Structure prediction request, 1046 residues.
Amino acid sequence: MMHRLDAQAGEWLDRSVPLRFTFEGREYQGFSGDTVSSALAAAGLALLARSFKYHRPRSILSFANHDSNTLFQVDGVPNVRGDVTLLREGMRVSAVNTFGGLWRDKARVLDRFARLLPVGFYYKAFHSRRLFPRWERMFRALTGLGEVNLGAARAATPKRYGFCDVLVIGAGPSGLAAALAAAQSGAQVVLVDESLRLAGNGAPPALVGEAHRSPAITLYPATVAAGYYADHWVALASPTHLTKMRARAVVFATGVIEQPAVFRNNDLPGVMLASGAARLLARYGVAPGRRVVIVAGNLDAYSTCLELHRRGVPVAAIVELRAAPESDAAATSCAALGIPILQGHAPQEAIRGADGGVAGVWAAPLSAAGHIDVNARRRIDCDAILMSVGWAAASQLFLQAGGSTQFSEELQQFIPKELPPGIYAAGRLNGVYEIESRLADGRRAGSQAAAHTGFGTPSNGAVARSARCPSHRFPIIDHPQGKNFVDFDEDLQVKDLENAAQEGFDSSELLKRYSTVGMGPSQGKHSSMNALRVLARYRGVGVEQLGLTTSRPMYHPVPMKLLAGRSFHPERRTPIDAQHAASGAVWMPAGNWRRPEYYAVSGESRAQSIEAEVHAVRNGVGLIDVGTLGKIEVYGPDAAELLDRAYTGRFSDLKIGMTRYGLMLDEAGVIIDDGVIARLGPELFYFTTTTGGSATVFRELLRLNALWGLDCALVNVTGHRAAFNFAGPSSREILQGLTDIDLRDEAFPYLAVRPGNVAGSPARLMRVGFVGELGYEIHVPAGRGPEVWRALFTAGVPRGLRPFGVEAQRVLRLEKGHLIVGQDTDGLTDPNEANAMWAVAMKKPFFVGQRSLRILQARGPRQKLVGIELAATTPLPKECHLIIEKGAIAGRVTSVAHSRALNKSIGLAMLSPELAQVGRDIEIRLDGGGMLAARVAAAPFYDPKNLRQKAGAAA
Amino acid sequence: MKIMVCPLNGPRPVAEFAYGGEIRRSPDPDTCTDAEWSSYVFNRSGSPGAKYEWWCHIASGYWFVVLRDTVSDVVIATFPADAVRRGALPP
Prediction:
């Protein structure tokens, strides 16, 4: 049983401050400085968790914040990392994923059915479509981790941005040495370590002090370098925030991760990694047990043994996997102390005690070929088993950075092979193990990284890699009854991996996907290496022939709150926004903008308001804010040439003071945008684009201009100008009172553009006909927009003016049969299909899309945009409802609305050409399958001769 | 985030840039066959390697040419846009 020892210098506790907390409802006590895990360990609890799949009892494994055994629910927060979370007074801690609590977990029965749940069984057993939802519910409930509190308050976690010359990841001996060397060269250094403190990571205390004092080194303790992104951009996750660190060079001193031995019941509470036990002992004064067995595969085991002995923790035996291990001072001392060392033995099986923890171990001779002699096994009683059999390089981030590794047979470890520019590796990650070598390797990497960023001269002294093998070749012991776990997160045993390989999933990537090895919260930190060894043995090849699976961010689980954004959705607002709001605007998004959909009036329904707005435009006057349209000026001798090439129409012959409709195609001949192009001078044009297309159209025009090398320049004035459409039979009369421009037909004909003043503001007026009434588009400087709007509004209200929104405008233009690019056209519509060939000057020498359009014209349309009408009494179909002819899809509705002026429902539809004859009956399929009769009709529906907009007279 | 070196504005985060596609030589629309033109419009080789690409620094509206290795995502060189028209891009 784990227990607390007497205080010792150097521990991380303040024993004068006891802290009370509860675990699974029972009260316990720890000290200030304890982590949740260390306090629970000190309390002597055998059982801390249940495993993910079989609900097996679990306890501390790595004490390095790497395994999933010590995830807790703390004060309602799920998956709190117990190894690194500091204990607080009054904390309420419970285990995750249990049914009825940790000790009585009803799901523990699953462990007995493990035989029935072979690898890949999800794929094999649950493909029935009928039963799948049931299985899914069941497994979602049984497996998993903490419980998310959906009512939790939103936590704002701002992102921070950092910059440095050299980023050093890992503050062990080599990382510290690298940081100091880089700083001494003159570089600004950031040193990151996941540990709460820098001291006690094996580095000489003097170095730690130096790093703390150095003004050129910024320390990030308790911070995980979670992901490496392009150009040395590293995500640093601390408990409270995320820092996006941009470095100019990165030193990876990420070290190694201790690996478990694989033997039956190696997951029992009390079986843990020796390095974890050593940390618990040194920092928190917690002994791993009262009688300990060490499974050894390297020399580290003997140092751990000596330290336990020094602290008075009895070591029952060292089970040494190797028949003839090398020796050092520590090993000699252990032997001298009389501690039994069973060379060439392996733990055949850990024995479970009454408390659910370890009660002993069966040790048996292990042959050179890896076979166990069960008959010669002997029982050693103990309450803790420490595994010290080897290490795996923490190369995940290094691999993300584009480094490559190769497997070193001598070191039994993947070591860096190729390093991209600005990337350096040092220390044990680099296969350098002895302390003096690690320091030297760190200094080398630090000076090289600094030199890469322009500071100092690089040290070229290569440091020799370890001469001793720190890791056992095959610390995996077979057992006929299994339960020898390779992956503790996912409860995967040796036979699961072998079965997966046998079923054909015999590459490291396939094995991972099929068996889920390495896919749990630890992301393979304790399982990848052993899984590779199992696979290599199965296939009869070396580990070097298999290779690691691809490493991707995040290296370590990162709380979602650190990644979540601010829920910040910027939207553009026109200068008239406040006045719209005052008029009761109901908003809708349009591109990046918010626009009034309609203006709510009390006592009116939405439909009534929209109808009244339409009515005002048709019979009096209406005012709409069209400032969201893209607005571009092009100036220069080649301005007309640019437009001639970029748009389908001809603009070189457009008279000054006139406008023309502009249609833009892509290279495939598909309609991508439209607008009105006005000529203000011989070399000056002003034109509009659609609201949604303004940014991309402007950018594409810039590209074409750069490509063609024309002598003209473009300015995007979308945000500089406010724009309104003032439309309706009374518009001229009212506007004339506000402007010095002569609005009479003979002075200002349809489609003309005139500069002048409106309501005291400089303005450009364009006589347009989008809504099918006499109307003027008024463009003024954005800053003057509100006062001009107010003046128009005030002058119009006595004459029945209503501001109108996007919905009313849609009805108005639909009555005129005008298409909206992107609504009535799609990514395949060419001008021929959209009845827009009138806007295309095919005779021009060139325009974008012309060549494709020639091909399309020869081929003939595959669909045709037509008007449709429906009886006023029928329900409205929706836009995109399909038109069915003889059971097959023959088209779709693209726009539809009820027209009060026409007393019927009208729409536009894309239809097969053979059906596109006026008068043809068609059927529209509604939601739910009902059919609706409609008829192809001639568009425009309203004022087909366009007399109202041209003459301005009542037609 | 990746850093892109704009010939006009220097090194900037790649989020400030828009990608404009691979630069390909258009056949003469007046003399080519329909099949040649369709192939130009719709077909892309997709083969990895060094490619000339259009890139735009959005804030300044500056278009330029990037020779980029699409395997390693490394920018090999940049050129002003008029190099395309002048046929001045090295093969």
Q: What stands out?
A: The domain at 630-716 of chain A is CATH 3.30.70.1400 (Alpha-Beta Plaits). Chain A has 23 helices and 49 strands. Residues 435-452 of chain A form the longest helix (18 residues).
